[in-house]
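<context>
A single protein, sequence plus fold
<entry> Chain with its tokenised backbone below
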Amino acid sequence: MSKPRISFLSQNEIEAIHNASLKALERTGIKVMSEQALDLLKKAGAKVDYASNHVSIPGNLVEEALEMAPKTMKYCGRNPKYDFVLNKQETHFLATGNPPLIIDGETGECRYSTAEDIARCLVVADYLNHVDLVWPFGTDLNVPGPMLHIVDMYTALCNTEKHFEGDTVTAEEAQYQLEIAATIVGGREELKKRPIISTVICTISPLVFDKGMTEASIEYARAGAPVVIYPMPAAGQLSPATMAGTMVVNTVEFLGSLVIQELASSGAPVVWAPSCGTVNFKTGRRKWGPESSLMSLGIAQLARHYGLPTQRGGLGSSSKLLDAQAGYQKAISLIPSLLLTPDIAGGIAGLGPGTCLETMVIDNEIIDYALRYVEGLEVNDDTLALDVIDKVGPGGHFLGEKHTLQHFREGWMPEITDMETFEVWEKEGSKSIAQVAKEKTKEILATHKVEPIPEDVQKEVSRILKRAEAELL
């Protein structure tokens, strides 16, 4: 099978970025705000200055961490039929939206999300065949801050049977999230075997590691649940103006975090989510352009060199509407991403200002198209079909041939994309893709049922949530 692939950095360039990152980790160092993490690094042989929270990490610690980190890992859903493995062979898709705002499909209004909005998004994500895991689609503003990420996680697990990737900003939050997840799957050991949750930890560019998120990641590492490291330097602002320099900062932040995870628990599952932005120097705002994709693709090559799982945006758009810009930006960003086969690609349901249910349905169709594109084509005696061409001959047709029956399903078949003539489209109501997606969304919400968490487990989780409220509030 001939499959299109991207590989634009040479081996020498990959090694140059790696070596520069090792030098920066040891020479420039990083700032780690967690004393717990500083203790781990000090004990392992890093040079630690507790007064300034400064750490210099020697290259041998990085190499050891790269050896310890698993190269494949299992992501599990509440329902085992949604389990999958990150093994660099195929891409799995993450519905992320763009919280905390929701773009209301009925009114077009962009507003803060409600608990009902979040549940509706999760049900649609649970239905769609290309969504493998979910992120919080919004924020229930009625939930107090210290409980927010815990409630987000439980809300998600109640409304989808797929894997949940969320956020946590303190060790205490992480502990309660892990306790709830363990209660649902049947205990801590079972959670280690079947992690139904993972967490995203962001570094603070340039080269700073937050106390709360770092200590939360240590809790996840010790529980055997995946940690997604998400450095976000922006060229010219939070990293050098050059793409190569920004890639070095991103790599330094990832490798520093990787060392901490592996020191906390050898073999801790870690995923690299490189996010490299650029800056609009007229406004000072971060922006996403072709340079962002180039840097992320380059780092994906470096991650593949390390043998580590990766996650990247995939379906990004800055459009404020469900319009042509949203479509072309998402398609243009997704296809190059898939050519490097990241383990996870996100962005499903997101538009510039917020989350959009109808966009999620359209994104599922874009993914379907893109997957067929990157599948490539096969050239052999059967597909060259000379015998069939000879049989049919000039002026004939191939509709009745056995060969056609054997192969016609290989052609891409859309679910919501219109490919009819103008007359047929007009007869069927002259619907835009946004209208078709809205109708499909309503159909899903009316018919799709998510298997609920058992009642006895819900009662136990309620007790955990009350205990969390008493402690955290």
User: Anything to note?
Assistant: The chain is about 50% helix and 15% strand. Residues 381-410 form one domain. The radius of gyration is 24 Å.
